[in-house]
Sequence to fold (254 residues):
Amino acid sequence: MLFDTHAHYDDDKFAEDRYEVIEKAHESGVSYIINAATDVKSCEDSLALAHRYEYVYAAVGIHPHEVGDADDNALDEVARLAKDSKVVAIGEIGLDYYYDFAPRELQKHWFAQQINLAKELKLPVIVHDREAHQDSLEIIKQEKANEVGGVFHCYSGSLEMAKELLNNNFYISVGGSLTFKNAKKLVEVVRWIPLDKLLIETDCPYLTPEPHRGKRNDSSYVRFVAEKVAEIKQISVETVADVTLNNAKRLFNI
Ligand code: NI
Fold:
């Protein structure tokens, strides 16, 4: 039994077969999936999936890539949709200084606003942080995101930062990049982190783990992430699956 805490089944890459892929993953042992939204349309699509399948939940929010296109109503729309009982988090929100698709000041503004929305609604946050570690950490502290907690998804920061995040009521989530050859820093984080603070995910259709790197990713591949965590921590895959599933249920109140 596995919990894929971060997927994007509303993505065009699943246009032909999304229901089939979700159902197959569920049959293969993925007990729960959270579909993370990126813009208002994606929030609606995530909710539609969550209503179609009992085991699919939704996170609603505006991704840092999309904040440049978001109008004034977008935050109200997210707030309205977030009241649905299948919404378990505000996400994905955060900062992306790798692509810089939107001006950094605007990204920060949206990140802070959405943390405050999460606090109003008492929902945890799902954070996207790419090459923006210092600012991400600063904003979660400044906006007191620890009041609701959350997760840094596809974690790419340092061990020091991971320690700070745990002190701020955050979990760390790892995906396919943990299985890549250049994952040294992330392996170190996973080796250190208490198992009860770790989540696993796919971020599908992206970031496909080894040995399928290059192909389209889906939730069934989350088991390769669980296997890698088990290898690093020298514990059984069953323990990793059990504990990370319970961690996610605790964080997302499922
Ligand atoms: Ni994502």
Notes: The mean pLDDT is 97. The beta strands are 2-7, 30-36, 56-60, 87-96, 125-130, 150-152, 170-174, 198-200. The first strand starts at residue 2 and ends at 7.
